[in-house]
Amino acid sequence: MSQEEKRTEIGEIGEFGLIDRIAESFKTVNTSTLIGIGDDAAVIDAGEHVKLVSTDMLVEGVHFDLSYMPLEHLGYKAVAVNVSDIAAMNGIPKQITIGLGLSNRFSVEAVESFYRGVKFACEDYAVDLIGGDTTSSPRGLIVSVTVIGEAAKEKVTYRKNAEVNDIICVTGDFGGALMGLQVLEREKEVFKVNPDMQPDISEYEYLVKRQLKPAARMDVIYELADAGVIPTSMIDVSDGLASELFHIAKQSDVGITIYEDKLPFDELTYRTAVEFNLDPVTCALNGGEDYELLFTISQSDFDKIKNLPDVTTIGFVDKKESGHKLITKTGKTVPLTAQGWKHF
Ligand code: ADP
Ligand code: MG
Question: Which domain holds residue 23?
Fold first, then answer.
């Protein structure tokens, strides 16, 4: 079959397979490009420091539904999810640019609402909006944010440097954003059937907030710096904890073992998963959009992090041959599977 006739569906190789294919055909030519495609952010030599650059796009109907996502929250989230990628490199965010694709459904006031959220996030993370691009879109809203950050050269953390016997740590808790989405989707269905019903989501406030207004864990980045700890590897959890564990394992060429009874659970997340007939552990491992940090540290650094209130150790880095394992509460060893968020 000739090259023109061949057609591979993106779903066949998946998002990561597609990125690998793009990366394979590009070699970097500038010595200042220290790291290109493959980590949470690119790393560019800038003298004593490095510059970190990352882009994340949010598409209406894929990443958000404006029937329950206020535009102000969307603006905040679009910035926070980008800042999260700079945090994952152990860097400090400095500037952002924003590209907007807008259909004629959006008014000036709507755009201003979006930018109010952007401004809140810029204040929270001390970043400057320095530019962007505005264009029309045939349908819906597309938001693409690029963030630029900085780090001292020796402090940058990659996905690739986890070592056997390192301790695996996470911040916060998992599955909350997914459960928030479930709650919002359920209320939307109720509203469709009976528009007079006012949704009551007050009891799920934490979950809804996790979905609509996630926070990048810059607080933990500063805590680690104060504690004098440079993780051996780090990634932010956008697609699901298991999927991110796989990225660390693949790029570091190691195996991983995590313990079910060590996974940090928020009680409301757990209860809501049960209410929705979902397995809470599966939700924690595969729910997306928590924007927590997953990192590994040398055993010698354990004492420095053990008292950090929002950091939990969940397992250890193993030899590659040992594979990816979950030790269940009953002590059974089962293979860890990564479902991740599938866009294709
Ligand atoms: P994250 O989940 O941390 O945002 P992604 O999985 O989106 O990371 O991306 C992984 C890597 O692939 C990053 O280095 C990113 O810059 C790169 N990448 C993603 N999409 C493309 C693309 N269309 N072209 C070039 N590089 C890409
Ligand atoms: Mg990331």
Answer: 8-38
